[in-house]
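Materials and Methods. Structural model of NAD-dependent epimerase/dehydratase domain-containing protein. The 296-residue sequence of NAD-dependent epimerase/dehydratase domain-containing protein from Thyridium curvatum was retrieved and submitted for structure prediction as follows.
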Amino acid sequence: MFVRTQTYPTTQLPCCNNLEDIAKEGAFDNAVQSEPAFDFVIHTASPFPGVVKDPVKDVLDPAIRGTVGILGSIKAHAPKVKRVVITSSFAAIVNTASPPKVYDESSWNPITWAEAASDPSNAYRGSKALAERAAWDFVQEQQPGFELVTVCPPLVYGPVAHHLASLDTLNTSNTRIRDFIQGKVAGPQLPPTGTFLFADVRDLAQAHVKALEAPDAAGKRFFITSGHCSNKAIVDAIRKAHPELEERLPREPIDDFPADVYGYDNSRAREILGINFRTLQECIGDTADSLLRLGA
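The predicted structure was written out as tokens:
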């Protein structure tokens, strides 16, 4: 997404989502050239395919080369850009081998290229960590004229605002809410929660905007999370918001939320970006509302 000061934030913003292959050299060269010039760039593109056949071609190259590529194109062809915000991920923070007691912006996923390239199950986590590191390395080594900010959300839930051809095209996180609403999970055993942290998509969107605006955001990473969650907590939130769905929801769901779950520190996002994070109940309730309106 490219943003011009004179039109932001009320005018529809241009984006380059029709590129043939963001891993190609110079893929963004034409996209970043504009008259009048724009002042900010938000880079969100990173593939998350359901099936990974080739970790390098399908996931790693588009994420890493795409990220470094757009930074290089901006440096070469868009000298008026003041700041670039990159959507990273909790995948770039999480450390499954030796998890800290509390995750914050100083936490990094230690995964190596070899680990990510050799195992499809590691490809996405590796792509986010390696792409974000490559972005910070680019800024340090190339000294471009723009500032860099990265935002790192975990599972992202929230009401659907865009057009969907069908509920089968939902993002990965919201799909589990759809499945609960549609009675696809009987219980009591629920699918593994996986990541016990969440973000509301509206808070994440605001974080991107504030990351462009806040002077003190320059050169910083932001951990964008509202707090803990589990699949049972999500089911409970749906039930509270829509008791009429009781017959569809999992019965007596078992909670897999661990007693020794990792902590989180989102104070930097609250203090510098001014984010007042939504609760899980508000997030899931509003998400359920939107999915029901779409026919779930």
